[in-house]
Specification:
single chain, mainly alpha
């Protein structure tokens, strides 16, 4: 219960900080990584975290290579890639949560999180609630993870570190 509470509080602080400053403190990200690692290692053991961490890190790295290729095609400079296309805090946040989810759950989380972030921020810009055009991606993804973590905590049949629930829902296994 204590680790869960700390997770949610850190995720909410990341949202607030990203909305206000359009940046996230690296200390918060380190703290989040440590807390998420503690959470999963209590359930799975530290040795069980290595492969999902590595696979999820490869997934992010592959996505970043694709973004870099897109930027090269669009004739963006490397400086624009890091400052204008995606922020360093967004990238570090994505790496922080690699230890928390299985690769299948990570893919589902990142795809749904990116889509929801785009929809929510587009609506906020369209309604003139948001003045900044840049998306606070780490903040929006953090609140999405807080929601999923809360659902996992309150529903014992859902485990974000197991693909069984997801595979059962998708394929009836």
């Amino acid at each position: 219960m204590i680790i869960f509470t700390i997770e949610v509080v850190l995720l909410i602080i990341i949202l607030i900080q990203d909305l206000q400053k359009r940046s996230v403190s690296w200390i918060l990200l380190v703290a989040l990584f440590i807390v998420l690692t503690m959470h999963r290692s209590n359930e799975e053991g530290i040795r069980q975290l290595v492969w999902p961490f590595l696979i999820n890190s490869l997934i992010i790295s592959f996505q970043l290579v694709l973004v870099k290729l897109w930027c090269l095609i669009k004739d963006c400079s490397s400086k624009k890639l890091l400052n204008k296309v995606i922020g360093l805090g967004d990238i570090l946040f994505l790496y922080c949560i690699t230890v928390f989810l299985t690769p299948l759950n990570y893919l589902l989380y990142s795809i749904t999180g990116l889509i929801l972030s785009l929809i929510i921020w587009s609506l906020l810009i369209g309604l003139k609630i948001a003045k900044e055009r840049t998306v606070p991606l780490a903040g929006l993804l953090s609140i999405w993870l807080a929601i999923l973590t809360t659902v996992e905590y309150s529903c014992t049949s859902i485990n974000l570190y197991s693909d069984i629930f997801l595979l059962n829902e998708l394929y009836g296994i």
